Amino acid sequence: MQWTLLAATLVAQHAAAQSMLRFACSQLVVERTDPLVDPGKKYTEHLHQIVGGNAFNVTMDPAQDPAQLSTCTSCSFQEDMSNYWTAVMFFKHKNGNYIRVPQVGNGGPQGKLVNKGGLDLYYIPQGKVTAFKKGFRMIAGSPNNKDTTRNKGNICNRCWTSSNENQFVGGAPCTGSDSMDVPADPKCKMIRQTVIFPHCWDGKNLDSADHASHVSYGGSRGASGGGACPASHPVRLPQIMYELMWNVTEFADKSIWPTDGSKPFQYSTHQDGASAHGDYIFGWKGDSLQKAMDAKCNLDRDCPKGGIHYQRPDKYSACTKPQQAPEQVDGWLKRMPAGAPAVKA
Ligand SMILES: *[C@@H]1O[C@H](CO)[C@@H](O)[C@H](O)[C@H]1NC(C)=O
Ligand SMILES: *[C@@H]1O[C@H](CO)[C@@H](O)[C@H](O)[C@H]1NC(C)=O
């Protein structure tokens, strides 16, 4: 009963977004490179988890097409060689050591998505949308942001009190008690992170110096498609949403939490939850995304009228890449990766 009610509420809240494309992406690699913000630099200041096409590289020249260079993708659709990445979450033990929090797939009204690490992707169209062009890239949020109200409604964390990722908790993304701060409550079995990107484009620039000012949020917050676009950024893009499930269950014992006032769950940015952000480099083949949006493809399966092809989880999960900035990222670490390569505790 409760599930039916929640599902009905969710569907109602997503009325504008019923044709959203929702699919799983497994881990391509976990490393510090960031070809958008720090091209050419191997050990940037924070660790990322990256999914998508295997042409992901330390430097990604916008003139080169990831759809041509990639030989596989860790996402469900064969045509999607885009790269998507975020900071990762760490648990801090009271002894001062850190460990990366495991990521799991998610459920939801359209059924469970299967991924090995990684994240769930949404492309939410509102009416007729214009797909991204080759070379397009952008960032949502900022690793330097400290203002917990700035991205309210678009970037948030939810305390997922159910140990079953298929049993829905809460309302629409970034509503209710969802917060930019990372919850620190032993009742949370998982922490669901949402990153919603701007969906209004200036129609001219594929990127900008801050990787953000060529795009803008629209008239509404949340996963509704984004609302009306301002005159400065009149072109309506599909609204991209990342959804990550950080499984904090194994860290529920409060007696191992820090006693020095620091938070048990922290993003790899070395700042609070307000620093959460997402990076995107477009890499769909040809006009496949435009066709899929026009045809209202909406599930993680073949969509013949939109011409996109689903691949099975064992196939996309097998698309991985060795670290280009090699360092220890699993198990207990003496400190969070930054500066020189990290060392095992
Ligand atoms: C990554 O970049 C290096 C150096 O620019 C280049 O030699 C290599 O071919 C690139 N790899 C891929 C998969 O694009
Ligand atoms: C979350 O972590 C717990 C504890 O390690 C584990 O038992 C559980 O299976 C994990 N959940 C998922 C969905 O992987």
TrEMBL record:
Signal peptide stretch: 1-17
Keywords, in A-Z order: Signal
Pfam family, one: DUF1996
Name of the protein in its database record: DUF1996 domain-containing protein
Entry-linked InterPro entries: DUF1996
Record domain DUF1996: where: 34-284
Taxonomic lineage of the native organism: Eukaryota, Fungi, Dikarya, Ascomycota, Pezizomycotina
